Amino acid sequence: MTTSKRLPAFIAAAAASALLITGCSAGGGDSDPSQAGTGGTPEKGGTVHMLQNADFSYLDPSRGFDGGVNAFYRLIYRGLTMQAAGDADDPNKIVPDLAEKLGEASDDGLTWTYTLKDDIFFDDGTPITSETMKFGISRSWDPQVGIGSPYLRQVIDAPEGYQGPYITGDLPTIETPDDKTIVFHLKKPFPEFDNVLAQPNAVPFPEGTGAGDEFIKDVIASGPYTLAEYTPGSSIVLERNEYWDDKTDDVRKAYPDSWEFEIGIDPATIDERMIAGQSDDQNAIAGTVSAASLPRLQTPQLKDRAITADAFCTTYMSMNTTKAPFDNADVRTAINWAIDRSALVNASGGTQLADPAYTIIPPVVSSFKDFNLWKSDGDKGDTEKAQELLDKAGLSDGFEFTLDIRSQPLMQGQAEAIQQALEPLGITVNLNVIDTSIYYETIGTPSQQNDAAITGWCPDWASSASTIIPPLFDGRNIFEKGNSNLAQINDPAINDRIDEITAMTDVDEAKTAWGDLDEQIMGLSPVAPLVFSKGIFLPGENIAGYYPSTSLTDLTIIGLKDPSKG
């Protein structure tokens, strides 16, 4: 994602989302996500509205993998495990979902076993079994469909050349000895496997469904809601799934009778509507308030409604290490020295919405190590140090490169800040503006990627950096589609260290090691960290149970204070 959880079809970590970097939070309230939410308990009934600028990347969870759509998926899909509720004491905790309990690992850590709950069904009344669970998960190996979260493919063992159920057929390394039992065989021990199965693509589907583009405009739901209407780029309406039983679900509260997503609205118009709070907008939520609208939140009424969410995601600029001149580490390091991160903070909405970033791991992640390899006065960059490195690389007069960005004002402003910082060095930055709805798919396809790209990454779980460093910098994870290693760096020392850390059984040792590896990787400058993105959210006056996050806002616990108004 993400910018995690995934940006990717990624980011998450990533941040293409209506709830993430394209729109997030900050105003009044405690920054602890377990505390900072709208007051009161929602009542059952009514319709919650969501206003957003861009459509979701995909309805198919094997394809989509960004913060906004990941939050949406929780309404319509279920997996063996899931992230805890947004109002939990630890909202990053992994808890059972369709499984009776978390997985049981074998002594050697290579086999994980789960048992399904009773009375779980798809939206057509078909039972969810271990076979449908296996089928849904195996879709992630399909070269066309499986472009979303990479962790299943990275961790679960599979025969060489396996290409999913539609092309290859059965995946023998996932066993289903009976309808309720499912057994996973891993490539190597992975203590965080429960987290992997909480990813959006680890969900069941009836066997034989979902080939090609079948799930582009329709879904087979296993969660509390199912698709009633979908007009791409315009609207989505969800209605209750009559076969979902709340007795089998400890997290999703599913208070509203329906959800209506209004898509394609100009961000300034979204702000205006949320501030005014008229008619159905009192029952609405949206992404973060834009920087231009922040001064308007000073009235007592709006201050009471505004909610702050801490930075969970890192916005960064990748540099394609397979293309000159970014195949030269000195050139990439020169870029990092030259960038004016104070200007980037301003372009990102000011200090209420962003902090300067020098690490790829954000401070909220337990593996964070506080270092700065390009320290400058006021975070304004150091043109002299940058010029020295360009001289060394034989590029004293600068060069020209193309920077991919989304067609979105925030990213446009960030790109212009980079242009201005690099101009004194004779570096010309040409902007390639890509439609938001296809942005992450485009930059995640190496054959379509240009010299550099602004993107973001949100960790898929905060207990370690295992969902940040490997997807972004492991050279063995460069894919033809759904690629999250945008720098396309393939450094044996990095790859080997990733293997060593993922094999560590001492959690604290691994946390420290990820932070050290972050510093080692930044020494090669495959990316330029730009800002840690914070956010300010302004829910409608009739919204309750709203705990916004710059990572994953939990839609499943949101409802209305008074359903008669919705």
TrEMBL record:
- Range of residues in the leader sequence: 1-26
* Keyword Oxidoreductase set for record: no
- What's a Pfam family this protein contains? SBP_bac_5
Q: Which InterPro entries match?
A: Peptide/Ni-bd (IPR030678), SBP_5 (IPR039424), SBP_5_dom (IPR000914)
Q: Name one GO molecular function term.
A: peptide transmembrane transporter activity
Domain Solute-binding protein family stretches: 93-470
Q: Which UniProt keywords apply?
A: Signal
Example GO CC term: the record gives:
ATP-binding cassette (ABC) transporter complex
Which processes are annotated in GO (biological process)? peptide transport
The keyword Signal belongs to this UniProt entry's keyword annotation: yes
Highest taxon listed in the record's lineage: Bacteria
In its UniProt entry, what is this protein called? Oligopeptide-binding protein OppA
Task: Name its species.
Answer: Microbacterium foliorum
